[in-house]
Design goal:
Shape: elongated
Strand content: 15-25%
Number of strands: 17
Number of helices: 16
Bound molecules: zinc ion
Largest sheet: 8 strands, mixed
Strand order of the largest sheet: 12-11-10-13-14-15-16-17
Structural class: alpha/beta
């Protein structure tokens, strides 16, 4: 059922204009919003019976919010006196009739429903209390808000989160688009490249018209168009020993969409030192892999538990040399975005300790267990951090 249609959740012909209580023989009384306000200001209790996510966008001032389905369990906490006058209000005045009927069946004799619901209450300019989310957010994130695992609390976590994306290329494009759409409040994009025609086969943040533009600027245009309400921080820089900590400090999650080993080793070292979870992704021809290196967990391996030393250039050709199927970074980048959102919400089981491998030709996912390596040069018991310059040097000598 579409949530815009909740007022029609019951078959239309079973929701008469006025609900009849056969036992009492009385119809549920309906009152206009202005009359409801006057009664509320006297002694009546106004119950907003819409769902939590609907009320997140605001409700009548002074109303008490309780989803219709919860009335039987919770109403005694709210109204102890069965002669208390109760007015019910919903989106457009249909569910509130049913809610009033339920209340009557529970023994409340003095009930009425607000005609036209919150839509009419708003249209008549009656007083409204802002919800936890503003109207734009409660509409934009409506499909998140109905998920109990996200809800208003989870969406607020996303809205206050900061995610750093290293690279606005193949992996960064899908990740940034979906994180922006999901309402991650601040995205930091770090990339020093300009858009080239050969990028457009997979880097869907960019467009033909923006060839030659900085990728960060091109990404800004795309992400702003999708969700103008999130904040973007752009750095036209390459991640280096001298700037890596400053670039990712104060972020909740870092997404590694780098296309080179020095950047990956630097990010790993900085995420270990700053205690920030790192969502790793890599693609090669028709295959890709994803994992999470979460240094906040004692059992989580780091990138160097998996790859202790950087491979030589011959062992690890990049996309421009080896080629990559255009859709592949889309799959892997979206798995990275999914892991980032799980980390931000604190839900589900992340890929920490697991390497998820995707083979596009075979259409197969494989999962490898990754354990933390006690002898890891990055996070092992004898690991020594001798500065980011030192890490950059290891990579350049590989
Ligand atoms: Zn390690």
């Amino acid at each position: 059922m579409c949530c815009a249609c909740r007022d029609y959740a019951e078959p239309m012909n079973s929701v008469p204009k006025t609900v009849r209580d056969d036992s009492a023989g009385d119809a549920i009384r309906e009152v206009d919003p202005a009359e409801a306000l006057a009664q509320q200001q006297a002694t009546a209790l106004l119950l907003d019976v819409r769902e939590d996510d609907e009320r997140a966008g605001g409700m009548p001032s002074g109303a008490v919010g309780i989803a219709r389905a919860l009335i039987p369990q919770r109403i005694r906490e709210i109204a102890m006196d069965p002669v208390q006058e109760i007015l019910t209000i919903c989106g457009s005045g249909k569910r509130s009739l049913l809610a009033a009927q339920t209340l009557r069946e529970l023994g409340y004799a003095n009930v009425a429903s607000v005609r036209g619901g919150f839509a009419r209450w708003q249209a008549e300019g009656l007083p409204i209390e802002p919800g936890e989310l503003d109207a734009d957010s409660s509409e934009r994130y409506a499909r998140h808000l109905v998920l109990p695992e996200v809800g208003v609390a989870g969406q607020k976590k996303l809205l206050s989160a900061r995610v750093a994306l290293i690279g606005a290329g193949g992996l960064g494009s899908p990740a940034a688009l979906y994180l922006a759409a999901a309402g991650v409040g601040c995205l930091t994009l770090i990339d020093d490249d300009r858009v080239e025609r050969s990028n457009l086969q997979r880097q869907v943040l960019h467009t033909d018209a923006r060839i030659g533009t900085h990728k960060t600027e091109s990404a800004r245009i795309a992400l702003n168009a999708l969700n103008p309400r999130i904040r973007l921080e752009l750095h036209e820089q390459r991640v280096q020993a001298a700037n890596v900590e400053a670039l990712i400090r104060d972020h909740d999650v870092v997404i590694d969409g780098a296309d080179n080993f020095p950047t990956r080793y630097l990010l790993n070292a900085a995420c270990l030192r700053l205690n920030i979870p790192l969502v790793y992704g890599a693609v090669h021809r028709f295959t890709g892999q994803v994992s999470v290196f979460d240094s906040r967990r004692a059992d989580s391996p780091c990138y160097r538990c998996l790859f202790p030393e950087p491979p030589s250039a011959a062992e690890a050709p990049n996309c421009s040399e080896a080629g990559v199927l255009g859709v592949l970074p889309g799959v892997i980048g979206l798995l990275q975005a999914t892991e980032a959102i799980k980390l931000l919400l604190g839900v589900g089981e992340t890929l920490a300790g697991r390497l998820l491998c995707y083979d596009a030709l075979a259409a197969r996912f494989r999962e490898l267990r990754l354990s933390r390596d006690a002898a890891c040069p990055g996070c092992g018991s004898h690991a020594k951090f001798e500065g980011y310059e030192d890490i950059a040097r290891i990579c350049s000598s590989a």
